[in-house]
Amino acid sequence: MTTHYFIETDFDSTQLARQARDELVQQLIAQGLNCHPLMLLRATDGVRIFAIEASQPELPLEDTPTKPRRRTIKSRDRSTPQVTIR
Is the CB of residue 8 less than 8 Å from the CB of residue 20? Predict the structure, then answer.
């Protein structure tokens, strides 16, 4: 996963920062990435930070039917005679 940041003060206006983020989101989606746009606030002065979290899509699991493994418990002592009670 990668994160891209657009700090409000790096642009002439908040709208331009948001627009730059949205354009990159569209480009990353076109490349097949999953994107989550975020809006954060810097704790020291409240400046808005527009961010994108981009990640590769998860590959689907193969739907191959498999038999569950059977676990057999083997007797440790085979010398025990069988007893019949009458």
Answer: no
pTM of the model: 0.59
CA–CA dist 69, 49 (Å, integer): 52
**pLDDT tens series, the chain, 86 aa:** 888 888 989 989 989 988 988 999 999 999 999 998 889 999 999 999 989 998 988 777 666 666 666 766 666 656 666 666 76
Residue 50 burial class via C-beta count within 10 angstroms: exposed 0-12, middle 13-18, buried 19 and up:
buried
- Nearest C-alpha neighbor of 10 from the set 49, 38, 57: 49
